[in-house]
Amino acid sequence: MTRVMAKELGSANVRANVIAPGITLTDASITLIEDAKTYGTDRAALKRNGEVDDISGGVLYLASDLSKYTSGQTLVIDGGKQFI
After folding, report:
1. pLDDT digit string (tens) for 30-53?
2. Mean pLDDT of 20-27
3. CB–CB of 67/57 below 8 Å?
4. Dihedral angle at the C-alpha atoms of 81, 68, 7, 54, nearest 10 degrees?
5. Residue 40 CB-density burial (10 A; 0-12 exposed, 13-18 middle, 19+ buried)
6. Would you state the pLDDT for residue 84?
7. End-to-end Cα, the chain, rounded Å
8. Is the pLDDT of residue 63 over 80?
9. How far apart are CA 80 and CA 41, in angstroms?
């Protein structure tokens, strides 16, 4: 869907991107997942789950002019779990 939106809206100079976060430690995830702090960390390259600040950098990048030539992309922020 992101790539279709990027193609359809690109001529209006609108960028369409998405962030795909890994497990992020929030009040909700800690409450809902029994072992949230360690869940899946053995499969992660960075051996930890994300913090809110880990995700916000990607959000700031996509919202800024630093990403002015980025569209139709999925930015995976998961501590290296995707490829393991």
Report:
1. 999 999 999 989 989 999 999 999
2. 94
3. no
4. 20
5. middle
6. 56
7. 25
8. yes
9. 10
How far, in Å, CA of 59 to CA of 37, rounded? 22
Tell me the fold of 2-77. Answer: Rossmann fold (3.40.50)
- Distance (Å, whole) CA 79 – CA 81: 6
DSSP code, position 82: T
Locate the domains of the chain by residue range. 2-77
Q: Which amino acid is at 12?
A: A
Structure tokens at 84: 């393991």
Q: In a 3-state reduction of DSSP, which class is residue 68?
A: coil
CA angle 24, 16, 12 (to 5 degrees): 160
